[in-house]
Amino acid sequence: MSESLFERLGGEAAVNAAVDIFYRKVLSDSSINGFFDTTDMPGQHAKQKSFLTMAFGGPNNYSGEDLRTSHTHLVERGLNDDHFNAVAGHLQSTLQELGVTAELVGEVMAIAGSTRDDVLNR
Amino acid sequence: MTKLNYGSLSIDLCDGETVLEGLLRHDVDTPYSCQSGLCQVCMLRAETEEFPEGSQAPLKPSYREEGYFLPCVCVPEKDLNILVGNINDHYHRTTVIDIHHYNHSICRIRFMKPDDFHYKPGQFINLRCLHDKSFVRSYSLSSNPQKDDFLEVQIRRKPNGNLSNWIFDNLMAFDNIEVQGPNGTCFYTSKPERNLLLVGTGTGISPLYGIAIEALRQNHAGRIFIYYGSRNSEGLYLLPELLSLAEAYDNITVTTSLSGEGSNEASVDVTSTNNFSNTEKIRQGRANDIAFSEHTQLTDFDLYLCGNAGMVNAAQMQGFLAGVPMERIFTDPFEHKELRDVSRLSG
Fold first, then answer.
1. Nearest CB to A24: which of B313, B320, B329?
2. pTM for this prediction
3. Lowest CB count within 10 Å: A91, B140, B220, B278, which one?
4. Would you tell me how many other CB atoms lie within 10 Å of the CB of residue B129?
5. CA–CA separation, A17 vs A20, rounded Å?
6. What chain B residue is nearest to A43 in terms of C-alpha separation?
7. CB-based contact A13:A55 (threshold 8 Å)
8. Which residues of A sit within 8 Å Cβ distance of B?
9. Taking CA atoms, what residue in A is nearest to B38?
10. Which of B77, B311, B326 to mutate to test the interface with A (most CBs of A within 10 A)?
11. What share of chain A is helix, strand, coil (3-state, %, to 5)?
12. pLDDT tens digits along B126-138
């Protein structure tokens, strides 16, 4: 049997390697860091871990409905395609920094891209 | 709609409402403090099919197994049946040994360590007044379990603070007080070769001092940088001990700073505990800002932060962006959200 995407990426260890890099990129980007609540960094960090696990094809409990409701208050504050693209870009550059092959990067970006309508409440 | 049972009371929780909010909405007299899942004062025990993620996470495994959870961060999806009457089991009555006043607003309390009380330097306890159980607050331990047979905390008198004022105005040696704990994850777990960056403001310096002592006791080899901040020089109650430590150990560096308006870079005469005079250069500015301007690449550092929530939140961000791995950042913020009806005067 072929391995799942998550296994091919390296499972939870891959998520752990990626999350700090990804989260730093997001926090350092002034076009989007205002959407992240900085008063609870450990909590936010845990959310990034959940997001990456999902994007890596790993086990997660998110439904499309969950993604919608959890981003509603951000959409109300103006969350749009530019912001979504910025976050997706940071995900891509994180994977590239970690030396992930182009094929696997493509698979992860496809999963991330598939959340666009739910995240932006469309 | 999730149902919450509390003794004979049946409560329908509103969407997104925490268990604590539901209880308070029904005027249930249940203890709470930080409302952020930090201090564990609100801890209750319940029967339920499944606790929501996060509502048990900070608790010890043995507590989790027994169904203890934190109502202030619990938004249940399944019905919950709260077991009333067990909270008081966790408070131990103990006796004050002595109270030492560093100055008019900061004191040190030592009290007898309860039996079977095992802790690590840097963890915190919840202290509760015998006469009014709503007077309960969290304080970091600064004693050392290997060397001290007492528990020690530092208390700062807060304007309109219930417990701190009660302690300053009433508590004396041989009085009793109640203690629950230990809690918290801000204790020494560093590998010996890591460099440590410790930033403490106000009374937060005491648990960090305990952590530094513990690091040395475990033969920590890496450098230890301690940044000690206060608004004014009167608040630098631990300076003599810190300077003695820096003098005794090559790998320890202490930088002291004052953040209050009107304070300039100054020299302060410090009479150390050995009764010799030291002139220590005091920097001007916030301890965390100075620390992160001097240390900009921190991937091989562990970061320990104790003090007011504003400093701890800012320093967490500064440290993380400078490269400290998130899992190597340890914090204990102790000005929790304002809970009182009368707000504190600023300052």
1. B320
2. 0.80
3. B278
4. 20
5. 7
6. B54
7. no
8. 19-20, 23-24, 27-28, 38-42, 45
9. A40
10. B326
11. 70, 0, 30
12. 899 888 888 888 8
Mean local confidence (pLDDT), B37-62? 83
Strands B106-112 and B195-201: unpaired
Instruction: Give the distance from residue B316's alpha carbon to the nearest chain A alpha carbon, in angstroms.
Output: 8
Identify the helix (H) or strand (E) that includes residue A9. Answer: helix A5-9
- Specify the length of chain B in residues: 347
With CA atoms as reference, the chain A residue closest to B331 would be A42
Average pLDDT over residues B195-215: 95
B263 burial (CB, 10 Å; 0-12 / 13-18 / 19+) is: middle
List, in order, residues 6 or more apart from B295 with CB less than 8 Å away: B197, B225, B301, B322
Pairwise CA distance, residues B121 & B209, whole Å:
9
